[in-house]
Design brief:
about 260 residues, alpha+beta, 5-stranded antiparallel beta sheet, two-stranded antiparallel sheet, globular
């Protein structure tokens, strides 16, 4: 996770050679590749995969175009099974800082967890009780610290992989097949702030649910750098591009920053 405030300052006047910002509006005039973003196939049963998942927008006014990408029925159906699980993971995490997430938690998420013994157990297990005590030893209250289980982290990684592929197609109009999609660690993300500052903040569906910045880099637009943020709380940075070149791009960014 990174601090979104790091994106608010203006980019340096002297631009690094590794940041060859491309106007994404120019790229979006290209004919889109309509193959499935997951298997690269093209079938009669093509669908649109909504990433972020549609269930995050329950009860929320849709003010912006939603991000969708082509997916065959089989791939879309198999991956959509993670949608409810992902919502039940991130909504409780974001509810303290987001009224939209809090409303979802009070409604759809709580009712869904209540119907499922497995989800109810996962919701209980992800919290760790802590005693809050002042430095002088005065007991205040018992509180819950939010933690993610290995299974929940795996679900989140699968969703972010879907998100990276969908963003690659939605932004560049190219099929992500043959590209690596790396979710950056915090110590790696900081080196890409210069590039992200060049991109405007955009939204999918509603900015209270999902915001993002995307920038195409490289001479042939072979890399896509994306900052994504759920409920203005849970943010990540990812980079997509040729597998053998991702490491080189990371090293170049670290040297230039």
């Amino acid at each position: 996770m990174i601090d979104s405030d790091a994106l608010e300052s203006q980019p340096d006047e002297e631009e690094s050679d590794i940041w060859k910002a491309v106007k994404l509006d120019d790229i979006r005039t290209n004919p889109p590749d309509e193959r499935c973003i997951y298997c690269a196939g093209l079938s009669e049963n093509m669908t649109e995969d909504h990433v972020p998942p549609d269930n995050l927008y329950n009860g929320v006014a849709i003010t912006h175009e939603k991000i969708t990408a082509p997916a065959c029925f089989t791939c879309n159906n198999n991956r959509s099974k993670d949608d409810e699980h992902f919502r039940n993971i991130i909504v409780p995490y974001c509810a303290k800082d987001s009224s939209v997430a809090a409303n979802l938690l009070a409604g759809k998420v709580s009712s869904g967890v209540g119907r499922s013994p497995r989800l109810k157990k996962e919701d209980y297990d992800r919290h760790e009780e802590l005693e809050q005590i002042t430095p002088s030893g005065i007991y205040l209250v018992r509180s819950l610290r939010f933690t993610f289980s290995p299974a929940e982290r795996a679900c989140m990684l699968r969703l972010y992989d879907r998100l990276s592929k969908a963003m690659y197609w939605y932004t560049l109009r190219k099929n992500p097949s043959g590209r690596s999609h790396k979710l950056l660690e915090a110590n790696e993300s900081i080196h890409f702030m210069e590039g992200l500052k060049k991109a405007p903040t955009q939204a999918s569906g509603n900015p209270e649910v999902f915001q993002y910045r995307a920038i195409a880099i490289g001479e042939q637009h072979e890399f896509l750098l994306v900052w994504s943020c759920f409920f203005k709380k849970l943010s990540m940075v990812s980079i997509s591009g040729p597998p053998e070149e991702i490491r080189k791009k990371l090293e170049a960014a670290m040297k230039a920053s």
